[in-house]
Amino acid sequence: MGVSKMSESQRFGRVYEFLVDEEDSRVCKDIGDAACRVVPGNFLLILLAQFINKLADTCSSAKLVIPWLFASAGVPAFFSGLLVPIRESGSLLPQLAIAGVMRKWPKRKWFLVIGYTGQGLGLIAMAWVATHMEGAQAGWGVLAVLVFVSLSRGFSSVASKDVIGKTIPKTRRGSLNGYSASAAGVITLLFGIALALQLTEQWQNLAPLLIAAACFSFITAVCFGFVNEYSGAVDGGGNALKAALQSASILLTDSDFRLFISVRALMMCSGLSAPFFILIAQSSGEDQGLAGLGMFVLVGGLASMISGVVWGRFSDSSSRKVLIATALMIAVLCAVAALFEWLSLSALSVILGLYFCLSIVHEGVRVGRKTYVLDLAGGQKRTDYVAVGNTLIGVLLLVVGVLTAVLANQSVFWALILFALMALAAAALATRLPEV
């Protein structure tokens, strides 16, 4: 048995060394010796879990799959407009309260298990609604289930940063996020090819995709259940509300975290600007069918696939510099897109190229900010950082999303100019961030 375990450990070590390009697979910066010895196995297990979870996200996309389900069920367009805000803010807003409960548990991986199991159950319920209801009734039913799925995602989001911080050392977290992004890009790329070739026209009902997504969520829960996590700090694990309020106070007392949140809030423009690139393409009058949509999904997946690992390595070197560089790139891309809108130069091929560049930079934003917040603090503070930051960003997403939507209704040009200015401000603030 000992020989078998040693052989398995050695195999994990060799694969891990290959992925991170490190001769000594046990170099650890800020985790204990016991956790350090099992880094290779945990790295590969978490990477697998994140990849499978991306399969679930792709099969249940609130931007693609659920709107198609709504259209096939005769659901009014009003409901489609609520999908993304509910999915994103629903998982971010309650994280401060979730963290208040989670603080008293020395092992946080079980919150991941609960979160992904909840998502799986919710997706099964959503599939049932899709096959048994129509019209507005189906819309309200799916939105109700989506709230539950989003809350479950909140559990997963808070716990995942903490578990990774406890099991993966500094200088390796960026690589983990980068490989996950590239693997996710492969899945999105294949999905985009199916759209571009209009293979999905054969799908009379997309509910089976939701069942598949549920299965992937359950598998993700199992993967995280096998992560070898050692007990951590449980400071402040008493009253959940009191703990949550104490956590929120770090916005007043921790200047580095407050600065990071300011940068992250301004860099919301990287995600919020993407639909406006597609709006410009739609005004070109070229192919606007399913194939045209598939081309955008395809280039987005290709961007993630080829850039994730690069951004991961860059973030391990300096996630602060990644934030600065990506902010400047977003400013340029939004300004160029605004110029094209102003001059009415909306050729589909050109906008596709801009969207491809934006997708590459957006991956850098995601990998850079995840790596930075993981490295900025250790122990109990990491849970507080993630929960407080995500809750605040959830509120700001709703506010900024509504404001930019109103502005875009008057002028897409000025909305893109606003995003460019936000990115420039983020770059300026990011230069003041400390190296971590």
TrEMBL record:
A Pfam family of this chain: MFS_1
GO molecular function: transmembrane transporter activity
Organism per entry: Halioxenophilus aromaticivorans
Alphabetically ordered keywords of this record: Membrane, Transmembrane, Transmembrane helix
Protein name per the record: MFS transporter
Transmembrane residue ranges: 64-86, 110-131, 137-155, 176-200, 206-227, 265-284, 290-310, 322-340, 346-365, 385-406, 412-431
InterPro entries registered for this protein in UniProt: MFS, MFS_trans_sf, Sugar_transport-like
